Structure formats: structure tokens, C-alpha cells
Amino acid sequence: MASASTSTFVVPGQVLGNTSSHVPGPGTHVYENNIVASIIGRPVVLSSPAAADTSAKTKTNNTSTSTNKPIISVPHSGTAGEGVTPTPTNTITTSSTIGGSGGSTNTTLLPKVGSTVLVRITRVQQRQISASILVVDPSPNDITSYTRVTDDDLQFQAVLRREDIRTHEKDKIVMNDMYRVGDIVRAMVISLGDERNYYISTAGNEFGVVVATSDAGNAMVPASWREMRDVVTGQAESRKVAKPS
């Protein structure tokens, strides 16, 4: 079974392919016919030898069904490729281009009004939420791993006000049902704020939680626009979930 992977991490919620051309594997789930990453990791594409195996297993009444679609998976750290040396074919094109185009760079990209950002929630209060900005202007095929960033005190700080969380029923918002400490959220910068904080908004379907951990400490995947589900226990928790990009 041929295998190929990339050196760039993907994050939960990132679209990796379509069910019409690929088969979802471990570390992924299907959302609206798209295969979406469920965990942080490096995507791997396996060219499945299913044509022969599946055909033999499903042959009935002189007919057979088979599929030779490649399998997209996001293995847990340390299991990518299952010992198979990656080849340069059948890769998912992802690259880190923060601060420039066509390659990785260490240039710091400053947030500005209109920038899309990935933030980590650091504090939830009744009227506002505090967060650290981890990545500025990510795109579906252009994401830098925020797992290398661990010290929130060294990052740009941001504030998400209650009225900027969503566009509807703002008076009925329960802050802890929207976001919790540790959540990774896609948001947009709406104001440069003061000398300490940027102001961000998650009012829009494309904004919200992209990575979350359940109360039990397990990874979660989107169940709907307002719920995420523990992949181990199946328990649902309230969140404002970002639409997969």
C-alpha cells in the first residue's frame, strides 16, 4: 500500500478532500460530503489496494463492486505512515506561508482590521472572553501549526465581547456554552483596540471553535453548528462551531 504525507500540520475542521474522490480514514470525519480533519496532525494519503480485495469479497451474482479511492487519514503523532516511507505522489498540498507566499518564513505578521486569526481562549467572563492570537490570516491550504506556540503571554492578546460572538439572539448568549478555556477559535479582527488588546468577532458561520477538548479530556469533533461531540464517550457539549473551511 503506497503512502504519502506532508510535513505541515492540519487542524480539526480543515477540509482534506471529498468523498467522491477519497475515503475517510482514521483521524477524519465526513461533513457535508467533505472529509475533514478531526485531530491535529500530518495528513497521509494511502492508495488502497481495494480493487482486488473488495471485488473478491463482494462478488455476488456475477457482479462485483470495488473501490480504488485513496484513503485520507490524520494519524496520531508517531504513527504517520505506519513505517512506510512517504513518496512525493498523492500528497495533500499544504504549506506554511505566514508573512509571505510560496514558502515558510519567520516574519511576524501583525493583525489588522479584517484579518482572520486563530486564537486560544484563556479566560471566560460574563461580558467578555480573553484570548491569545496564535496565527494571523490562515487559509484552508495554508496553515501553520500552532502546537509550537505554548506561551500565551508572548502572543498578541485579544478580547471577544459578548455582543460580537454571534449575529442573532445576542441577549440569550451563555458565554460558557459558546467557548471554554483552551478552545482554539477562528475569528476576525474588528478593531485594533487599545495598547493591550485587539478586538475580535466570531459573528459569522465560518467563525467559531475548530479545536476543543471535552470535560473528560478527549478530542471532540463537530456534531452541528452549536455542538461538539467527544470522540470517545460520545457526550455532546455546547460550542459555537466554525463551519469547516
What do you see in this structure?
The protein folds into two domains: 2-83, OB fold (Dihydrolipoamide Acetyltransferase, E2P) (Beta Barrel), CATH 2.40.50; 116-238, OB fold (Dihydrolipoamide Acetyltransferase, E2P) (Beta Barrel), CATH 2.40.50. It is mainly beta and 245 residues long. It has a five-stranded mixed barrel with strand order 8-9-10-12-11. Strands 1-6-7-3 form a four-stranded mixed sheet, with no helix packed on it. It contains two helices and 16 strands. The radius of gyration is 20 Å and the shape is globular. A hairpin with a 2-residue loop joins β14 and β15. It is found in: Nucleus, Nucleolus. InterPro entries: Csl4, EXOSC1_C, Exosome_cplx_N_dom, NA-bd_OB-fold. Keywords: Cytoplasm, Exosome. Residues 51-73 have a biased composition (Low complexity).
CATH superfamily grouping of the largest domain:
Nucleic acid-binding proteins
Low-pLDDT parts are 50-66, 78-107, 141-150
Distance between the termini: 29 Å
**Strand order in the sheet with the most strands:** 8-9-10-12-11
- Note the beta-strand portion: 25-35%
Q: Any idea how many domains?
A: 2
Helical percent range? under 10%
Q: Decide which structural class fits the backbone.
A: mainly beta
Question: How many helix segments?
Answer: 2
The beta-strand count equals: 16
- Name of the CATH class of the largest domain: Mainly Beta
CATH overall fold name of the largest domain: OB fold (Dihydrolipoamide Acetyltransferase, E2P)
State the order of secondary-structure elements, H for helix, E for strand.
EEEEEEHEEEEHEEEEEE
Radius of gyration: 20 Å
Summarize model confidence as the mean pLDDT. 75
Please tell me what the overall shape is. Answer: globular
User: What CATH architecture label of the largest domain applies?
Assistant: Beta Barrel
Mind describing the biggest β-sheet? 5 strands, mixed, barrel
Biased composition (Low complexity): 51-73
GO biological process, one term: RNA processing
Main location: nucleus
Region (Disordered): 51-87
